Amino acid sequence: MRRIPTQERGQSLVEFAISLTLILLLLAGAVDFGMAFFSFIALRDAAQEGALYGSMSPSDTAGIIARVRNASNRPVDLSDTSTVQVTPQIIGQPCEGGGIQVTVVYSYPISMPFISAILGRNTIPIRASVTDTILQPTCP
Length: 140
What we know:
By secondary structure, the chain is α+β, with helices and mostly antiparallel strands.
């Protein structure tokens, strides 16, 4: 059996350390991206909930915002007004046949190392917007 010189074993260890670092950075990026996408899905569902409420009561802006904020608290705490903005907007007439658009914007905190230094900020804005048809009240 051939004996491996000490120098080659050290070289293998260095190569392994460099490779492992790169693989762990890629894995951390994939996990962070997955969590950001999961947050986007929660925002989209909350915006859909607000648009559904707004299709029945388009003039109740406070009710639409409350419906969005109460839709979920995981993975995004929608009740946190410092990181989540909710904007309902009527498109066309505020009666049957018009539209209502609910937009939810969240500042997603980046947890992957070095990305915040590259982007120059610690958060990424995630935006979800849903448009629905107003069903009530009927137009005069």
